[in-house]
Amino acid sequence: MGINLRRDNIIYPYFVVGGSNKKEKILSFPGRHRLSVDLLIKDIKELKALGINRVLLFGVPEAKDGKGSAAYKNNNIVSLAVREIKRRFPQLIVFTDVCLCAYTDHGHCGILKGRAIDNNETIKILAKIALSHAEAGADYVAPSAMAKGQVGAIKRELDRNGFRKTKIMGYSAKFASNFYGPFRNAAGSAPKFGDRKDYQLDYSDSLAALAGIGADIDEGADIVMVKPALAYLDIIKEAKLKFNRPIAAYNVSGEYAIVKYGAKQGLWNEDEMVKEITTSIKRAGADYIITYHAKDAARWLK
Q: Cα(262)–Cα(251) distance, rounded to whole angstroms?
C-alpha cells in the first residue's frame, strides 16, 4: 500500500481503576475493560511485545464530587498508574487525559457556576491535574475539556514548576459527537443534565475546528488532535495542509464498536475493515492514531 501505517503511529487507550486484580467489563464496549494498575502492567507487557510503545491513560475514580478533586489529589489513580508504568517500562511513552468529566458528580468537563462552565476556574484545575501527572512522569499531558485557554494555562503551570520537557497534546478539535457512547460507559462520564454542545464543537463547523487547532498551537501544544477521526477526515486533512504540525486522530469508541458488532454479525472481515479505517486516517494526514484496535492492528502490521 502507498500509505505506510507503522506501530509507532499508534497510541493505545486504557481505563484505570483503583484496587488490585480488577478487570471490569464495560457495557457496549466489546473486548474492553477497566483495569487496576497491577493488571494494567500485565497488559502493557503484551502491548510492548506487539511493538506498541505509546499509551493514553484515563482514570476512573471511586468517588466523585462537584470539583472533581479525585483527579488531582495526592496519589490520584492516573498518577499512581504513571509512576508504576515508568518504574517498570521507563521507555514507554505515556500520555494522560486531563479532564474533569469522569471525576465530577455532574459529568461535565469543568467546574460549574450554576449550570454553565466557569472557564477560569476550570483551566486552573486542569493545570493542577496536568502538573500532578507530570510530577508522576507523564511524557505528554492531554487536555480534553475544550476549555478556552487550557493549553496555555497548563504550559504556564508546567514551566513554572520546572516541567518544561513535559509535552502537551491538545484535544484541539473535539466535536460534540454521537460516537462517544461506549467511552462514557467506560469512564462513567455521561453528563447528568444537558449536553456538551456549549463547549464541544458543532460537527458542521470546520472553521471553528481549524481556529481551535491554531489557538492550541499558538498556546504551545506539541501535538494537536482531531476527535472523532472517521467523520472528520476532512478536518485532519485541512489541518495538516494549513499547519503542518504533528496531528493525532482519535478513532473513538463508537467507531470501534461499529466495527466489532458488524464483524460479529458477519457483515465484514474485521481485520480488513480495521486496515481500511486506519489507512484512511493515516492517508488524511494523521501522524498518530489513538485507537482501541491497536493490538489487532499491530498483529498484521509488517
A: 16
Distance from C-alpha of 241 to C-alpha of 56, rounded to nearest angstrom: 26
| Distance from the Cα of residue 276 to its chain's centroid | 22
Residue extents of the structural domains in the chain: 7-300
CATH number for the domain running over 7-300: 3.20.20.70
Q: Is 174 a catalytic residue?
A: yes
Query: What's residue 3's pLDDT?
Result: 66
Task: Using alpha carbons, select from 244, 213, 249, 211 the residue that is nearest to residue 230.
Answer: 249
Helix (H) or strand (E) run with residue 107 in it: none
Which of 174, 260, 275, 282 is an active site residue?
174
Task: Please tell me which residue in 64, 167, 227, 282 is annotated as part of the active site.
Answer: 227
pLDDT value of residue 1: 44
For cell 501527572, name the residue.
Answer: 133
The yes-or-no answer on residue 73 being catalytic is no
* Whole-structure pTM value: 0.96
Are 276 and 262 within 8 A, CB to CB? no
